[in-house]
Amino acid sequence: MLLVLVVGIALCFDFTNGFHDTGNAMATSIATKALGPRTAVALASVLNVVGAFLSLAVAATIASGLVDTDLVTLTVVLAGLAGGILWNLLTWYFGIPSSSSHALIGGVIGATIAAAGGHAIEWQGLVSKVIIPAGLSPIIAAGVAATGTWLLYRISRSMRDRARSHGFRIGQIGSASMVSLAHGTNDAQKTMGVITLALIVNGTLPKDASAPFWVILTCGLAIGLGTYVGGWRIIRTLGKGLVEIESPQGMAAQSSSAAVILLSASFGYALSTTHVATGSIIGTGIGKKGSEVRWPVAGRMVSAWLLTLPCAGLIGAMAYALANTIGGTFGAGVDIILLAAVAGLIYWRSRKTKIDHTNVNQEWAGTVVPAEPEPAVAA
Amino acid sequence: MSDWINLTAIWKIIVFGLIAGAGLPTLFAIGMLALSRGPKARAADADSEVLVGGSPAGIAVASLCFLIVVAAIVWGIYKIYELGHPH
């Protein structure tokens, strides 16, 4: 019973992971109008599902590289997921592209510490496979994107402006597809890892087992569905808030993101696709002469990144304490009801200042919510 | 220290990241530039979106560039599949 609940909540997390991260692949394509907003989310969704089947390296890191599987219980996994989901919803509400991966890892670690103490954490795995990559990957991505941007403008400078944008918009379809695929190979893996962890904890699977087929399939579908719903608030911040993006910059940013994510995933680094995508977008602002990076927006994001692990951890720890005090499946049930209530509240609040495919590209005037809501125009 | 930071991995990510993440779009741009050379491009006005210039040599160079880009992507995806399924 508890196992079924945990798997269900894990898939819910995967869904929030999908819509939180649609922007990583598609924000720049939507901003430069290389793809219509709805075409973009549909394409991203399909490629996420495909990507989920492509590689299993990251799932292994999450399932057995971070916490001692002997000391973790199903309630711990559930509480950790609750922490991840809540933090994802909160940051989405404010349009902040924070890392879903860190939310999940933070939640699980917080709940584990609350349950078994700090010695149940594989600190070395955490630092070497999560924290150090988190710090380095946006910088590497920014460097690659800045180099690419500079080269693209340099090579194409003799072309007519309209023809050049037209060409790079076509290229962006390809590069955006690669980021979506990369996102599937990286982020869908994380939920697979957690479900695998739950199955190991429950004794259903042996230690060091890899994800069974049904887990890969359901995780791929959940993240694909989330992607299709689209986190328009975050797409808006990434596409319009950070840098005003032209199509050569969009292509450079996406190529850099895809390359860095795919390379790191194949080393088993559970890095944040969000950090990489944001780093790349900032890089394209640095690489183009006369382009302006809105550093205050970037600064706010980085502070949210630093908060993600501890905050999701704290929520995870509290969720564990609550479920453990009440005890049993009923305690876990109380957690889930509370989680659903808070999620409903955030969703209800977000309806008041709705952002969707109709107003995602409005001029950036300092905040994620556009100054005046324009009447809906069919996309 | 090397238990905590895998320098080889970082080094590889930077080099291959630059080759794939900056090199491939650059090749795409070179292809586009080659494609846009030719009589039709010279005849087009400044507002035109027309990309194909119509020079045979340009089209040949462009095709080669695009082919390399596609081949590199297909090879990369294959390698990732191979590395990600060790059993």
Coarse structural class of chain B: mainly alpha
Measured as a percent range, the helix fraction of chain B is over 70%
Taken in chain order, the helices and strands of chain B follow as HHH
The average pLDDT value of chain B, as a whole number, equals: 83
Regions of chain B with pLDDT < 50 over 5+ consecutive residues? none
| Percentage beta strand of chain B | under 5%
Shape type of chain A: globular
How many individual helices of chain A? 13
**Total number of distinct structural domains of chain A:** 1
Largest sheet composition of chain A: none
Describe this structure in words.
- The complex is a heterodimer of chains A (379) and B (87).
- With 379 residues, chain A is an all-alpha fold.
- In chain A, 75% of the residues lie in helices and 0% in strands.
- The termini of chain A are far apart.
- In chain A, 63% of the residues are buried.
- Chain B is built from 3 helices and no strands.
- In chain B, helix 1 runs antiparallel to helix 3.
- Chain B is elongated and about 60 Å long.
- The interface between A and B is large, with 54 and 43 residues.
